[in-house]
Amino acid sequence: MNINLYYLRSSLLDFFFPRFCVACEKQITEWESAICLPCFWSMPRYSALQMDHLRSKFWGKVKIHGVFAYLKFQKGNAVQDVLHAIKYKNQRELAIWLGQSMGREFFWNVDAIVPIPLHKDKWKTRGFNQAACLALGISKIWNVQIRADLLLKKRNTVTQTKSGGRLSRFLNLQKAFVGVPQENIPQRVLLVDDVLTTGATLEAASVVLLGLGVKEVYIACLAAAD
């Protein structure tokens, strides 16, 4: 396509069908993916020194070889707006784009990327799995296969942010995940989810993966709460 025609078409689309930032609600350009660049760069991020604090959520519970979180979640901040838009406003392309951004920030030598699965009822309601979109973005950067066939969610559990303390959340998730035996089990996997709070969801899924024969589990989340 002629470059001038491309810019003309883009300008017309922006004029007749404007898009707005999911955080500040200002109009965004064609080069921005549902969030404006000022909001994107202003969102708080975890430093490498803070990753040990996140990893400590799993100490004495399940052996995790590494934990990465990209953004800091706090109630009312732009990160919460982004997470809400991805989950409830069908912003799957934003999730893929953010997954790619995550993939440029860290790297572990893993054999496969495993997204936290959705229960089939939530899949029917939402139409997609936000963790799988994040995993796809990381996969595009790392060139590592996605293995969504290793885990199933058999129980439609209570939303984790509303299910009380860490123990009650873990009990809520017991037996929620089941492993699917395969001939080719990857030895090192990156387990991906959108939010890390108490770690109960990721702990339960990690236990199942290790039970399948996975040797090392690493964790990556778009956002985490202190």
TrEMBL record:
It comes from the Bacteria. The lineage of its organism: Bacteria, Pseudomonadati, Bacteroidota, Cytophagia, Cytophagales. The keyword Glycosyltransferase applies. This is Phosphoribosyltransferase. One of its GO terms (molecular function) is glycosyltransferase activity. Belongs to the ComF/GntX family. PANTHER family: DNA UTILIZATION PROTEIN YHGH (PTHR47505). The keyword Glycosyltransferase applies. Pfam families: Pribosyltran. Keywords: Glycosyltransferase, Transferase. Residues 187-224 form the Phosphoribosyltransferase domain.
